[in-house]
Every structure is written in C-alpha cells, then in structure tokens.
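worker-3 :: picked DUF1996 domain-containing protein
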Amino acid sequence: MQWKALALALLVERGSGQAMPMMRFQCSQLVVDRLDPLVNPGVVPSPHLHQIVGGNSFNASMDPKTHDLPSSSTCTSCTFTEDFSNYWETSDANIKQTAVLYFRARNGTYRRVPQFVSEGLRADGGITVYYIPSPTASENVTAFTPGFRMLVGDAASRGPNDARKVCHRCMPATGDKSNINCGAPDSQSLPNEMCPGGIRSVITFPTCWDGKTTDSPDHMSHVAYPTSSYSDVSVGAYGTCPASHPVKIPQVMYEVMWDTRIFNDPELWPEDGSQPFVWSTDDKTGYGQHGDYVFGWKGDSLQRAMDARCNGAVCGQLQTQSAESAMKCTKSRTVDEEIDGWLTAIPGMKMDD
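worker-3 :: tokens ->
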C-alpha cells in the first residue's frame, strides 16, 4: 500500500533497510466550528472556521490549568480510545483541528472543499495522524505531559517563510509514493493547477523540547527543530537537538486530503486560470497555513506506544475502536452559521458585529 511505501522513504540512516516505525491512524471529523482555544481562547466566534477532530470535550476555552481532556471527554473520534487530544491544522492538537479549504468559483461564490480518507483508512472526513519515535530502538523519545501545546507556521504569512514543515502537494490520480515530510514536489504555496488526485496538506511539528515549559506565549519557543539542516534529515526525529531544547519528543505529523477533484471543471475556474482555493483564514496563497497541537493522551499511553515502537493503526500497548465507533463521536456546533452550499463569503471573513 502507498503508506507502507511512504514509510520505506523514512529509512534509518544507518542503512538497515528497514522501514521506519510510525503510528498512523485516522481521526474522524468531530465538528466544524469557528473556535480556536489555542490562538483565540474564549473567543466565540473565533476569526476563522476550523475542522476539529479528537476528544469531544473540545470547547472555546480549554484552560490547561483546569481542563483535562481525558477525564472531560466521553468519546474520541480517533482510532486509539486513549487519545482524547484535539488536532487542527490552520492557515491562520492533542486537539486536532484543521483550517477549512474553500473553492472560489468564477462567479465569486465559495463552496467548502470536502475531505477524503488517506489510503487504507476509514473515517468521515478528518485527518490522518502520525506519531514517529526515535529512528533507533536504543533511543526512546519522551512523550508529552499534560498541558503541552505547540504551534507551527504563521497565519499572517502571505509569502515564502521559514515554516518548512508546512506544505501542500498536487496529487496525481494514483501512484504517489514519495515522502510525506514536505520534500519535493511539495510547496508552501497552494497548487495553481487542477490536481487529478486532490490536494494533500501536511503539517510536521518540532521534535525538540526545552524540558521545562508545556507551553510558551507564542506556543513555539518551548520547542525547536533539530540542528541538522533540513536537507540532511528525512524526518525531524533525526538529527541533534539544540542545547536549549535537549529533550527529544515524538515526531507529530498529520496529513489532510482535500477532494478538489470535484472542482476540476474549467468552466468553474477563474477565466485567467489563477489558483481558486482559499483557506478559511482568507489566505489564497497557502503560505499562512499553520498547525496547532494540544496534548490529551490518557495516562502514560503515548509513552508506552513510543517505547514499544508501535507501527500503523495497530498497537498492542493501546486500545482501539472501530471506524464506525469513531465516526459516532461528534458534537454540535457552538456557532450557528451556514458553512456549506454556495456562499457569498467564507464564514469569518466578515466578522459579526
């Protein structure tokens, strides 16, 4: 399968020829809502629309001092039942949340781009989540602790930036078995052509931690990428952590498959052929995409999985649920607004009075 071929692209650099172990599992859509407890805590509605997956205790505030995701959630939309994190990728984790991609038609109206599931998985929309341990069995990584949060990318960017781990790929109809870690042919910008296999969006988080703070004012300073240059490593877990951030943490990565194929009609695209897709942050370039992560695994479950070097969506150290059960974990939107159908504006582009 394609994902196994992708794993083979992450070979241990010592030349063992063995595929890199990586947890890879699906998180179904929990809710699509205008809330962002990391960047805009307590703000209802938040400026931008997001898709959220994971534990159903997600809300607008989620104060890390009082909100414990595992004990506050009654279900999770993810494969592993001990993962109550929420994840999201935004253009503006473990809350998992993604920005919402819209298509702007030639007549100026917008329509939300649906998502489809990565190869070998089942879900209702959502995202595919990866956790990658250290490349060698002799070196374990330190799992995140309660209250841990981080962010990568810059929502305000509209041009090339240093968010090298945030990228897009114009997918072929079949046969793309190359890397998933923002290497060629990925780009920071949104593709400017009709993609036969849709658009894939990937977010790869830092793998080095200061070992002291679970968050920082900018949600970034307490973590860092390895000191090895980007061209020297296949994944962030490879390489040496800087002295300021000496603790190696799991490589968190997620991918979203956007079904732009349904808009591959020249009659819908702008007459000049320009790129018509827009993130829900009103970003037409793709450079403003970024990802948020809020840790929420129960007890030491993630540490056990990393120590066991679990691979794929099956792990003897963890409990799993069926795709059908995961898809039943949903919640109602807090902000009541039209998000589907052909719209004259993306939700949040014109803030409420």
